[in-house]
Amino acid sequence: MKTSAHSDAVVFFGATGDLAYKMIFPALQGLVKARRLAVPIIGVAQPRWSGEQLRARARESISEHGEVDEATFTRLCGLLRYVHGDYNDPATFQRLRHALGTARRPLYYLAIPPALFPMVIARLKSIPATAAARIVLEKPFGRDLRSARALNRLLLSEFSEPNIYRVDHYLGKEPVQNLMYFRFSNWVLEPLWNRECVKSVQITMAEDFGVRGRGKVYEEMGAIRDVVQNHMLQVLACLAMEAPKAAGSEALRDQKAAILRSIRPLEKGDVVRGQFRGYRKEPGVAPDSRVETFAAVRLRMNSPRWKGVPFFIRAGKALAATCTEALVEFKAPARTAFGEKLFGRSDVNYLRFRLGPKVAIAFGVRSKTPGEHMLGEQAELVAMDRHAGEMGPYERLLGDSMRGDAALFAREDAVEAAWRVVEPILGDKVPLHEYHPGTWGPPPADKLAEGFGGWHNPAVDFQGGIS
Ligand code: BG6
Fold first, then answer.
1. Catalytic annotation, residues
2. Cis ω on the peptide bond leading into residue 357 (within 30° of 0)?
3. For residues 69, 71, 75 and 77, what is the CA-based torsion angle, rounded to 10 degrees?
4. Residue 231 alpha carbon to ligand 1 centre in Å
5. Ligand 1 atom 9: the closest Cα is on which residue?
6. For ligand 1, what atom is nearest to the CA of residue 230?
7. CB within 8 Å of 323: residues ≥ 6 apart
8. Is 353 part of a structural domain of the chain?
9. Distance from Cα 390 to the centre of ligand 1, integer Å
10. In terms of domains, do 72 and 186 share one?
11. Could you tell me if 181 and 133 lie in one domain?
12. 132 and 210 in a common domain
């Protein structure tokens, strides 16, 4: 992909916070190790820490969420600086300006709560380098269409669109990128990849854990804002988009935005919301919370390729397994060549993309059972990919943003299109059903996919050694 001038410093706000601890320090070590990062790295946060304290924090983070490579870690520490101070205090930004020295193209990573964005962005004006600077921010990009647009206006007040990098870490995942590669590089699929041959598509993102102490934050979101509006619709876009018309990040992002725009806004009857029993007892959660921890939706597209083909998405916490999988199910013939009667989903052709935690692609086929009769059984041709040495999504995305490659970042029009899809059903407009932890969500969710073979439950319906 075409890239532009490399950033000459990395500044991450929220250096003592959770995101930095879990994701950013390990990604920084990875980039230093791969010799893709050799510029000053400046952590900014409120506590009056010393550089030594920041380095200790970095070591702890990498030990817990990766592995410390001593030689690389020493190099990383040589690049690491710390600037403390209140984000509302001009003196903090003067210290930052001083720490930036001669850097003219810094990359600012906002690893801070969105409520602090306006303050930080306004203060960045005092640093003359802003015109050539890049800004990286994490989802959620607003909490509805209106706030997403307001956030965008705020970003555009200081940065131009090509310098804005919106992180949806699913796009940094190898198996998600492979959805596009696999489709468009296996030409044999093209004649099949449409309404003539595809019966339905379903994507499940199941997590067998609850909100892990994030109750207060989760209460502000719910499953639809947390993962459906972003990760799940991005995965859907990779499966459904048209091929990019040219090389480069914008042609790719044009097609993603176009397919997201073609999705009809959800109506109440297309959605089932659930909340796992016990959620209301989580710290930070209201005892009468109406926030969904599970959502199942049925989407339709106004696109010539997909008209009439339902796309199902199901995502939830405290489900029966942790697993993200997409299934493209092909139509079965009206009559089989040998008069065999085929029943249900396990008797059809499908392509199954296991996106995590283990990665696999499987093609569901029929194969003859040995014997006198022309009868068969269902089999899977499974390709597993262990992804040895794979770069984590944060390392990939941080490296790409420093190189100025926006291909794997969400563009504003796509973000807005995704909000338009979920906007009508945000909040408490759709009934909320309780479900038991360790199940596949509330029973009414099954109704949504009825008539299309029902949901398939990853790691249960298709084990094949990859559960
Ligand atoms: C985050 C969500 O964006 O993605 C979390 O806020 C979710 O609720 C997480 O658990 C899942 O990411 P991954 O990479 O573990 O599938």
1. 231
2. yes
3. 60
4. 8
5. 227
6. 3
7. 204, 206, 354, 356, 357, 458, 459, 467
8. yes
9. 18
10. no
11. no
12. no
pTM of this prediction?
A: 0.95
Assigned token pair, 260: 């997201």
- Token pair for 296: 């199942």
CA of 323 to the centre of ligand 1 (A): 11
Same domain, 202 and 273: yes
Q: Is 168 in the pocket of ligand 1 (CB under 6 A)?
A: no
Whose CA is closest to 349, among 144, 128, 197?
197
Q: Write the pLDDT tens digit of every residue in 266-322.
A: 999 999 999 999 999 999 999 999 999 999 999 999 999 999 999 999 999 999 999
Q: Tell me if 159 is assigned to some domain.
A: no
Q: H or E segment at 28?
A: helix 25-33
CATH code for the domain in which residue 423 is found: 3.30.360.10
Tokens of 43: 């952590």
Beta carbon of 138 within 6 Å of any ligand 1 atom: no
Amino acid at residue number 44: V
Retrieve residue 22's tokens: 């879990």
- From the alpha carbon of 211, which atom of ligand 1 is closest? 8
Determine, yes or no, domain membership for 463: no
Do both 245 and 356 map to the same domain?
Answer: yes
Token look-up 């989802």 returns 139
H or E element, residue 296: strand 294-299
Domain count, the chain: 2
- The residue segments making up the domain with residue 26 are 9-138
pLDDT in tens, 197-231: 999 999 999 999 999 999 999 999 999 999 999 99
* Residues 142-151: tens digit of each pLDDT: 999 999 999 9
Report CA(456)–ligand 1 centroid distance (Å): 21
Question: Which letter does DSSP use for residue 163 in this model?
Answer: G
The CATH number covering residue 113 comes to: 3.40.50.720
